[in-house]
Amino acid sequence: MKTTLLTDLTIEDICKGFEYSKLEGKGLFGWSGKLTIQPEYQRNYLYAEEDGKREKAVINSVLKGYPIGLLYFYKPNPEEEKFEVLDGQQRITSLGRYFTNLFSVEDSSEHQQYFRTLDSEDKKIFSETKLTIYICDGTEKEIKEWFKTINITGIALNEQEVSNSVYSGSFVTLAKEEFSNSQNAKLQKWGTYISGNVKRQEILETAFEWIVKSSDRKKIEEYMSCHRYDKNIDELKNYFEKVIDWADKTFTKTYSEMCGLEWGELYEKYHEVNFDIKKVAEAVEKLHGDEFVTKKSGIFEYVLKFFATGKKEPKLLHVRLFGKVDKQKAYDKQTKTAKQKKVSNCPACVIENGKNKNKIWLQREMEADHVTAWSDGGATDLKNCQMLCKFHNRLKGND
Known about the structure:
By secondary structure, the chain is an alpha+beta fold. The protein has helices at 11-15, 49-63, 89-99, 120-128, 140-147, 159-166, 170-179, 187-190, 202-212, 217-226, 234-250, 263-270, 277-288, 299-309, 324-341, 347-352, 390-396, and strands at residues 2-6, 19-21, 26-30, 35-36, 71-74, 83-87, 105-106, 112-113, 133-137, 151-152, 155-156, 366-370, 385-389.
């Protein structure tokens, strides 16, 4: 890959004809239309987040005479004076947004100043600051391999952003319009089930994980490579919506603990089951209000599995264990009674009538157990607590 150094372009030059899309949250064009600021392989604009802390830092650096680092442009067609930002789109978009008065920065007197309200000296400093730019020339493969190494201070490229750059094309462009658009009206509904930053491609990554039924990056990239030049994203979009709609119809009431679960996996396992929606809702509500259930996010899979198979799996719920005081009291009571009867203090050993039928176990050799299993309505309290030797407790199952 060859590079040519440019040092005569100013911020004003780059910001001439600057266009910013409020709907998509990205810089579009600059340098009098010659520069595409956010080509399809680039990440979303992130510097406006956190009250614009990063974009304001870029502007303050310029006004104080600090360098803002090297910029890299790519010339896709040697025959045309058209360029794409390869590295620096966050900084360039920050400069353009300030130049077009889309945000203000605090001056030394703690007053908010837009570009139009700067005094003539600061306005000149900003406009005439020269940028250091390298024009890169190489094959698409070379450019994309280099792009994968980019690490903008404070915001490293994540895996999905890298994949978007490597497999850029019509498919990624359409996928980002659907799943990486912070103005998408569907985000509120999606947010019930999916956690993640839409601008960091985390919703899009989830969509890919669901369609390939795996979080394996290689499988995701195989899918992206296969569909790279597709003119639609119907398969990806339709499958994603099927998962969301299934979850929405199966659980008529939403809970905060639903967010971030493996809904794609749950859909594959259970979407063909004809659930009684009313019974599902009642079961979820009952478990959600159960003080002994400490992992509320496990309720939904627990209920699906129970109504689909009839099997109870309390380990999904992390049912609260007996406390030290209850275990000590249960041990003392059982041991005292056992010594009086000259039998084991483990009820299961007595019933088994084996070699340990008369053994008095130490407390550290025993574990607390629900007399009536929690899954059958037994409470986690002293009245329902018994101590069993470790062998019999684990043989019985810890439910």
